[in-house]
Amino acid sequence: MSSFCDEMWVQCKHIAEEGYQTAFIQGICKGTLDPTSYSGFMNQDIAYVFKAAELFDTVATRAKDEDLKMFARNRQQSFLRCANEMCEKFFIQDPSAIRVGETLEEYCQYLHRVANGMDPLYFMVAMIPCSKLWPWLARKMQHSEVNPNLYGFWAKENMSDSCSAKLESFVAERVSELDEQTSLLVYQTCMTAEVNFFKSATGEEISDISNLTAKLPVRLASA
Description:
Blueprint: H1 3-20, H2 23-30, H3 35-62, H4 66-89, H5 102-117, H6 121-142, H7 152-157, H8 162-172, H9 180-201, H10 210-213
Helix pairs in contact: 1-6, 1-9, 3-4, 3-5, 3-9, 5-9, 6-8, 6-9
C-alpha cells in the first residue's frame, strides 16, 4: 500500500469507526439484525455492484491511457462476476428491477459524476473506500469478543482485501497524476456514503454529504 493511500485511510478512519458502530454492523456482530433489513440492504448492494461495473466500463471508454483502460476493463469484469454470483445467491433474476433507496441513489449519482466528469484515475480513488472498508469491518468483527451467530458468514465472506490492494497499487503508481486534496475529498465522500448506506438499512440518521459533493470539481484533468 502506498503512503498516499495510507494517509487517506488515516484521515478517514474515524468514518470507518463510525461505520463499525452503525446498527447494521453491530446487528451483524451480535446476531440481532432484522433479517428483513439485511436482505433489503444486500439486494440494494447487488444494484450497487452492477452500477460500479457499468461505471468501470465508462472509465475504460473515456481513458486514453492504455494501462488505465485495461485495468478498468479488468475491474469491470471482476465486479460483473461478483454481481452475477450475488444474483444467484439471492435468486435475483432481473437486477434492473431492484429498487434502491435515496441514500444509495445519492451515492451512485456521486460515483457517476466522478466517472463521467473527472480524470478517470479519480474513479479508482473513489472505489477504494468500499473495497477497503468491508474487509476492515470483517476483520474487526473477527477479533471482537462477540460470540458467533447466524451472520458469522458475513465476516468470512468479506475478509479478502485483494480488491482494495489492486486499486491502491494502481493509484500508488500514478499518484503524481492526482491532486492530493481532490483525491482526499473523493475518498472522504465515498467513505461517508458507504457508512450512510449501512445506516440507511436500519433507518438511522445519515450524514449530510451535500457539502462534500458540492466541492467536486468537474473536468479537473484531461481524460
